[in-house]
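Sample pair:
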Amino acid sequence: MIPPPRSEDAYAVAVVCLGNICRSPIAEVVLRARLDDVGLRDVAVDSAGTGGWHVGEPMDPRAAATLLAAGYDPSRHRAQQWVPAWRDRFDLVLAMDAQNLSDLGGRGERTMLFREHDPAGVGDVPDPYYGSDDGFGEVLAMVERTADALVAELAATLAGTPDERAVRPQ
């Protein structure tokens, strides 16, 4: 279940993985594209990593190539490290795996696993960093499926807000 917005500002979603160069930036790019596709303009999406090894770097070249091949633009991404104080600025924080969730302080009303919204089942989004290039395609498929479900949930949640800002005509 998507939590209600904290304020009348844009609904803010963060996607968090370990280094912010593979899974969470893939999810950020796909989720933004899916939100744009349905005209859900008042949702801000960002991503971060629990570790700081890659701060300032673009996403992993294999992740970027996978996104490009699927028609997405990965060029704007630069890795950043999650700051605990950010918790209050996001309406929803989605961890890519159980360890990331633990690093964020565990599951809560606004913090949960990304795949809790996956119609194919709950679990971790596997980290493709140390695997073959095929792993990036598998992550993308999982992310796309979950992003579609998330967008539907966000639209339903935001449609029920008093200012009815959810889906606006383009």
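Residues 134-159 form the longest helix (26 residues).
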